[in-house]
Write a structure and sequence with these properties.
The chain is mainly alpha-helical. The protein folds into 2 domains: about 20-110, Orthogonal Bundle (Multidrug-efflux Transporter Regulator, Chain: A, Domain 2); about 125-215 and about 225-250, Multidrug-efflux Transporter Regulator, Chain: A, Domain 2, CATH 1.10.1660. About 50% of the residues lie in helices and about 5% in strands. The protein contains 10 helices and 5 strands, in the order βααββααββαααααα. The strands form 2 sheets. Strands 1-3-2 form a 3-stranded antiparallel beta sheet. The chain has a two-stranded antiparallel sheet with strand order 4-5. The longest helix has 23 residues, at about 195-215. It starts with 19 loop residues before the first strand and ends with a helix.
């Protein structure tokens, strides 16, 4: 179980890290933990806090991860005075993907990762951005690499819709390119109808929510209420992506 080390060991990219005998582990730990002993390491193993591998002859071998796990345990005992039960709980959380809380370098209680913005998801700014791209049907087909039957099928199933002037914008180009890429996997336009339906339902839901806001008069300061449509739609897309990831993880 990898525990984030303060100074991770340098490993050659062409060679797997060599296992360490218990004596080598003891020598590596003694500079920082003078009281460490072989019996102490064996005790921690008996308590289930470390699980070194065994050779055919029964000798213990330790990986670099085992060594850093030992450092975590010993530092928690020395600097935090944690009992073994608390250390065991912290190690369990680290194994389940929780992260050590930022601190002064000593082990701290792991926390759920804060998470950050997914660079692959559109932001509210992306959704509200307007493009001046205007393509004819022929230009759209050529740019997306679609043949005429596929283009017509996408139009029939409502996935491609021209604007009031008969042109296709940047969003339509994105739809066409995505549909063309999916066609390589045998996914035909008729299979994509649920995406159109789902998108229309999401948009309808958001319009229901923002309609009262749009209808409000100016505030006391004369400012027009801000339209939250892009922000809400961005959250809807994030939810959709999270549901897909959760479904894949459950398989």
């Amino acid at each position: 179980m990898p525990v984030p080390p303060s100074n991770p060991p340098r490993v050659s990219p062409t060679a797997a890290p060599r296992p360490l005998a218990i004596g080598a582990v003891l020598a590596a730990l003694e500079p920082d933990f003078p009281d460490i002993s072989i019996s102490k390491i064996r005790f921690l193993e008996a308590e289930g806090l470390i699980t070194p591998a065994r050779t055919e002859s029964g000798y213990r071998t330790f990986s670099p991860d085992d060594l850093e796990r030992l450092r975590y345990i010993l530092t928690a005992q020395r600097d935090r005075f944690w009992p073994l039960k608390v250390i065991r709980d912290a190690l369990d959380k680290l194994e389940r993907g929780l992260e050590p809380a930022p601190g002064d370098g000593a082990p701290s209680r792991p926390q759920v990762p804060a998470g950050g913005a997914d660079p692959d998801l559109p932001t509210a700014s992306d959704l509200s951005r307007r493009s001046n791209l205007r393509l004819t049907g022929v230009e759209l087909r050529d740019a997306a690499g679609l043949d005429q039957p596929t283009f017509e099928a996408l139009s029939t199933y409502g996935l491609l819709r021209p604007d009031s002037s008969g042109y296709y914008g940047d969003a339509a180009l994105g739809v066409a390119r995505a549909a063309g890429a999916l066609a390589a996997y045998g996914i035909e336009p008729r299979h994509l109808r649920p995406f159109r339906t789902a998108a229309d339902r999401e948009i309808g839901l958001v319009q229901q929510v923002v309609s009262p806001i749009r209808g409000r008069s100016r505030g006391r300061d004369g400012a027009v209420p801000r339209d939250p449509t892009p922000q809400i739609l961005a959250k809807c897309i994030a939810l959709h992506t999270a549901l897909v990831r959760a479904g894949l993880a459950a398989d």
